[in-house]
Design a protein that fits this description.
Layout (H helix, E strand, L loop, with lengths): L1 H18 L5 H23 L4 E3 L51 E6 L2 E6 L5 E6 L4
Parallel strand pairs: 1-4
Antiparallel strand pairs: 2-3, 3-4
Length: 134
C-alpha cells in the first residue's frame, strides 16, 4: 500500500513537471528530490525488522556473567546460539519481563543485555529483543 501511494505521488509530481512546457529546471530538480526522498522512505520501511526490535521497557537484572571462554556480543536472527548459552543459567522467564509466550520447542535466553528466542533442539535464533536489561 505504501509503495502504491509513494509511486503515485512520485508519478504525479513527474507528470506535472513533464506536462508544463515552461517548467523551470529547478522544478524538475525538486520533483526528482521528492522521488529520491520517497525511495529513501521505502528503504527505511523495509529495514524495520519485526524479528529484531528494541525493548519498550528496560529491566534491572542480576549481574550477567558470559559463559567461560565467550565474550558478550550481539546475535542476530538466523545465527546459532552456542551450546554454552543453552543451560538454565541463561534462561529467561517470559512472564517476568512481559514477553510473548514462546512457541512450543523455543525458549528465551539472555545474552548480555539482550534476549534471544531460540529453538531448543538446534539453538537457531528466531527473534532478538535488544536492550531488555540495564
Amino acid at each position: 500500500m505504501k509503495k502504491l501511494l509513494i509511486s503515485a505521488v512520485a508519478l504525479s509530481l513527474l507528470a506535472g513537471a513533464a506536462t508544463t512546457a515552461s517548467a523551470a529546471p529547478r522544478d524538475v530538480r525538486e520533483a526528482r528530490q521528492d522521488v529520491r526522498e520517497a525511495r529513501q522512505d521505502l528503504r527505511d520501511a523495509r529495514q524495520d525488522n519485526r524479528y529484531e526490535r528494541r525493548a519498550a521497557k528496560r529491566f534491572k537484572a542480576g549481574r550477567y556473567q558470559p559463559p567461560r571462554g565467550y565474550q558478550v556480543r550481539r546475535f542476530h536472527r538466523g545465527q546459532q546460539l552456542p551450546a554454552a548459552y543453552r543451560n538454565r543459567a541463561y534462561a529467561v522467564n517470559h512472564r517476568t519481563y512481559g514477553l510473548q509466550a514462546p512457541p512450543r520447542g523455543y525458549e528465551y535466553r539472555r545474552v548480555g543485555n539482550d534476549v534471544v528466542l531460540t529453538a531448543v533442539a538446534t539453538g537457531l535464533i528466531t527473534a532478538v529483543v535488544l536492550d531488555l536489561f540495564n
